[in-house]
Amino acid sequence: MKRDLCILISILLLTAAIVWLSLGQIAPAAALQGNDRQVVILDAGHGGVDGGTSDASGKRESELNLEIVLRTEQLMALLGIETELTRDADVSIHDDSAGTIHEKKVSDLKNRAELIGRYPNGVLLSVHQNAYPDPDSHGAQVFYGGGEVSLQWGELTQRVLQDTLGRANTRKAKRIPDTVYLFQHVSCPAILVECGFLSNGEEASLLRTDTYQKKIAVALTGAYLWQQQMQPDIWRGE
């Protein structure tokens, strides 16, 4: 029975992915009503005054994060997964009272944490890009928050990303550092995905393409759906 369910989920996701890839666009998810259901909160890291890192072409991390998040939202909508975005444009969601760039960054993070906290059954998927002085560094990597749910979700997402994007990536999922503000101020299951290295020219070029971004979206959606269907009770344990 377990094997049959795995096959069914795989076929469902593959069919949706094929339709999505062929059509190119999907109508956006309907606005959420209420907060009594599980919601995947898709967080495009950085934004606005905080562009994050950038690649050699000048493409900002905040833009790439948003592009991948919007593609993930589209695919999740096709599969009936409820979503909420922390931002839907390349903007900072800071308070008007914030003046300096530092104040705007702090206010933005506080507002994201407050938004996430509105959903008692929410789970957080935060999308980022990596950078490192060594230009050969490459590969997507998942970081997970505290608790068994986040750990299992993070490790599964890491494996699915490797299967989808290429097994040359030998990185492992890791516990997120205590210095990451957002993850220290949310209590829900949460993972942060570094989709690749913008400091690596070849990987940065891939990350700018529609096809590669859609592969990432398929991997993120598939990992969540697989975990949800195979272990539905696990989400109640954190």
Provide key terms for this protein.
alpha/beta; Aminopeptidase; 6 strands; 238 residues; globular; 13% strand; 6-stranded mixed β-sheet
Q: Regarding CATH, which class?
A: Alpha Beta
Alpha-beta content class = alpha/beta
**SSE order:** HEHEHEEHEHEHH
CATH superfamily: Zn-dependent exopeptidases
Number of strands: 6
Largest sheet: 6 strands, mixed
Count of individual domains = 1
Number of helices: 7
Instruction: Label the CATH architecture.
Output: 3-Layer(aba) Sandwich
Strand numbers in spatial order across the main sheet:
2-1-3-6-4-5
Distance N terminus to C terminus? 27 Å
- Which percent band covers the strand fraction? 5-15%
Record the SSE blueprint:
Blueprint: H1 2-23, E1 39-44, H2 61-78, E2 83-85, H3 101-117, E3 122-130, E4 141-144, H4 148-165, E5 174-175, H5 181-184, E6 190-197, H6 201-207, H7 210-230
Parallel strand pairs: 1-2, 1-3, 3-6, 4-5
Antiparallel strand pairs: 4-6
Helix pairs in contact: 1-7, 2-7, 4-7
Task: Kindly describe this structure.
The chain has helices at 2-23, 61-78, 101-117, 148-165, 181-184, 201-207, 210-230, and strands spanning 39-44, 83-85, 122-130, 141-144, 174-175, 190-197. It has 238 residues and is of the alpha/beta class. The protein has a single domain, classed as Aminopeptidase. A 6-stranded mixed β-sheet has the order 2-1-3-6-4-5, with helices on both faces. Strand 4, helix 4 and strand 5 (174-175) form a beta-alpha-beta unit. The longest helix is centred in the first third of the chain and has 22 residues, at 2-23. The two termini are 27 Å apart.
